[in-house]
Amino acid sequence: MRLSTLALALALAIGSMLPTPAHATSQVLLSQTELATESAAVIRGTIGEQKVVLPPEWKRPITQTEVRVAEVLYGKAPMTVVVEQIGGEWGGETLYVAGDAKLKPGEEVVLFLMERDGHWLLTAMEQSKYTVEATLAGPALHRDLTSGFFLRGPEGRLKAVDDLHDPEVRLEDMVKLLNEIEEGGAQ
Asked: Structure pTM?
């Protein structure tokens, strides 16, 4: 065996023993009603500027994303919200939490948010972000769900969702559901 072939074989053998990073997060799939009732607010707005900070109490980067609120669809929120997510680029390294929503400047979105001690957070990671898309029938909402999802059965047991189909939702239908929830009529 030539030296270069031996070196390659050795490198591949060593590389196969090293741990590889996981790129998935498991989440319980929430209904729109569950997502709303877990949220302090549901807003429609546009993603603005982002900045990464390193709070001393966290010791990891936090991305702060400004959202200019066009309308509050549920709950209460200010007209500008800063959404905080663990992750971002700091010191030449990037931290990303698999399964978290990716907020892109300029996007029009509907976000389900929690508020904790003045900090706004996504209620359920990527489940909390709908992108608003123009259609002939009016604005529609779409989510990109990439995590491994589970559904809670009647006895409380979790069952993996094998084929997740997250249908497009019309914005007016979402608004109607949120109004029903606020009025106490949705289940």
From this structure: 0.81
